[in-house]
Amino acid sequence: MTGDRILREHLIQLLNGRNAHLNFEDAVANFPISFINARPPNVSYTPWHLVEHLRISQWDILEFVINPEHRSPDWPVGYWPDPQSEADETAWIKSLNAFRADLSAVEDIVRDERIDLTAEIPHAAGYTYVREVLLVADHNAYHIGEFAILRQVMGTWL
To answer: What phi and psi values does residue 124 have, to the nearest 5 degrees?
Structure first.
C-alpha cells in the first residue's frame, strides 16, 4: 500500500470519528426532538444551534475547496444561526442530512486519487487539500464532543 493510500484511509477514518473521536452518527443517534431547542444550564445555544454551526462551518470549508467564487460568511455571526431561532423536526432533520451530505463530499475529495492532497488548492495559494480536510476533521471532532457533553448535561442519552 502506498503512502498516499494510507494517508487517504487515515483521513477518512479521522473524518468519520474512528479511533479517538465519537462520530457524528453516534452523537446524534436517538436525540429527543423535544430537546433540540433546549438551552442547557450556562450555555447560550441549543443542540440544534450546535448542529447548525457544525453544518455551516463544514459547508464553508467544502465550498472554499471546490468553488473559486465562494465567499465565506462573516465571522463569527455567519457561522451560527440567530441565537433566538428555533428549529422544528423538519429543520433538525434538514440540518443533519446537510451535514452528512457535505461530509460525504469531503470524503469524496479525499478518495479522489486525481487530487494531490498535499498540493495547493488552485484558487487558494498557501492552502492545501489536506490542510482543509484536517480542519474539517478537527472542527467536527471538537464540536461533536461538545454535543456529547451537552447530551450528558441534559440527560438525553437514552
So the answer is: -140, 80
